[in-house]
Amino acid sequence: MDLKKYKVFLASVDLGSFTKASIQLDYTPSGITHMMNALEDELGFQILTRGKNGVQLTENGARLVPILRELLRLEEDFSQTVSEINGLNAGTIRIGSYSSIAVHWLPGIIKSFQCDYPNINIKLMEGIRQEVVAWLDERKIDLGLMSYNPEMKFDWIPLKDDPMLAVLPLDHPLAKEKAYPIKNCESEDFIMPACGYDYDVVELFHNEKISPKIRYETFENYAALSMIECGLGMSVMNELITKGRICNVAKLPLQPRRHISLGIAVPNTEKLSPAAKKFITYCEKAF
Question: In whole angstroms, what is the distance from residue 57 CA to residue 48 CA?
């Protein structure tokens, strides 16, 4: 079984291009084209369509993707188990994370881990909740650092609770108060982060039975903070998002107080690679 071809196939799918896959895997585009043609000949059916805009999966190719991801995960697990027996000297950990966690938590944890295991490669992907969940479902990542959802189908390892805050312009009438009533979001110009897909904010309003007066939507939280600084409205964010941002805004705890649980989601803790299990212990140790 030639796993090399399967790795090239998945890289081409993920990147949408033989050229991009060749750069990532250090092959020539013609070499990758030859490998994919050979793989299709072996399989007896087409798995990719080629065009000016890159490559796309065929229906049959799409059926193979989750199986091949699991196959390569098992191959990596085998390699890392052998490595663990020899002192964990090789392997790769694929991590998906919220940007705020990637900025404030992961650098220190990765540095500590790499000091002890310098030969373990770490690949980090940043995204919003929906992206991290999709990466976990597709097995593109081994673990996801995100917020807890009681309905999630993943195993959960809690790390830290993070308070939810109201973020206001400095000249806001409540800017110097000790807390901000959540109910006020119904009458304020509200700036919705993540273009309305911030699970934690949406879930907060759902639980409190509040319909915020949404005036603006942004994808990037830093843009929302800048808009608040200019007096365009207010928003609600978890505290970690607001850290390290140079903005003249007021940050107040909510009334009633609310927080989210941040931690690690994994498809199955029993099937984690040795390197991923070890990395999780470093995350837990950090808190």
Answer: 5
